[in-house]
Description:
Order of helices and strands: HHHHHHHHH
Low-confidence stretches: 20-36, 117-128
Shape: rod-shaped
Helix content: over 70%
Mean pLDDT: 78
Largest sheet: none
Structural class: mainly alpha
Radius of gyration: 63 Å
Strand content: under 5%
Distance between the termini: 182 Å
Number of helices: 9
Amino acid sequence: MDNEFKDFTATPTLTFDVAPETKEAPAPTASSELAEQAADPAFSENNLTPEELQMVNEFSQKIDLHNSQAILQYGVGTQKKMADFSEAALNNVRTKDLGEVGNMLSSLVIDLKSFDVTEQDKGFKGLFKKSSNKITSMKAKYDKAEVNVNNVCTALENHQVTLMKDIALLDKMYAVNLTYFKELSMYILAGKKKLQEVREGKLQEMIKKAQESNLPEDAQAARDLENMCNRFEKKLHDLELTRTISIQTAPQIRLVQGNDTLMVEKIQSTVVNTIPLWKSQMVLALGVEHSTQAAEAQRKVTDMTNELLKKNAEKLQMATVETAKESERGIVDIETLKATNESLINTLDEVMRIQSEGRQKRKEAEAEMVRLEGELKGKLLQLQG
Length: 385
């Protein structure tokens, strides 16, 4: 950017050339004095150094109002330099584009917002797996965010260096602009001095001569000179408009310079304060997550231990009750004895009944056998008889 303004002079020069050659000159030391001159609309000879005043007086004597071409080109060289200066300023002094850093910051914000990993692994089996996966995920996100933070920091520092160079260059631009302001003012002073001299001297003589001679050529010559004076006056007014643009450019340069300074301070605050804070907060987030995971694991273990104790207590209670019940039972239940006794009594009753019936049947059989035997004996006796 320095090369863009290396051809602009810092010392005012007066010339009739359209585009005079420029040569490097030392910057004016009284820049504050020039600033005061720029703020003073009534620029006069009192604002000039003796050397500059001599330059104005000498240049004023060289102005030829009879030369229409000289009037047309009067001050055009400085106006062209002002145009070139404005073009260079337009190409080089602008609000710096921080779009790249803005995109990095947006990406970083997204990474930081997703830094809180939420996994929903349920059950005792997935407890330690969940903790391990979550910590690993958070470390990966931290590494990614750290890379983005470092990239943002590097980009911001590069922009800061560029802005600081621009601030220094804007000081040079400000001095160059004030030089052009003074140069235009010197053109205007020289022109007004010459215009006043011609109107009060040569023009009055020609008007008087035309009135005395009544010759048309004398009257035309007077009118031509008056027209040239009017054209030259308009040219000076045009230069005053250009000088006004130069006056307006000075605060614009300072405004851009102030914005760049504010941006440098903001970048410095971000690099020194904000970015280290980001890093410390991410480290703290990892530490908090470790503590949270440890507390969660301890809670799960405690809950599982309590649950196991409750279940074991219930099982122990059931087993103890059943054992006590079994231990209090006899080898044979009373109901079993009753049933067995009843069955035995019934069996004995049945046996006695059967025995009684057998005895009865045997008696009956015996009586029947006696009867049969008697019948048989009677038959046998009948046969013998």
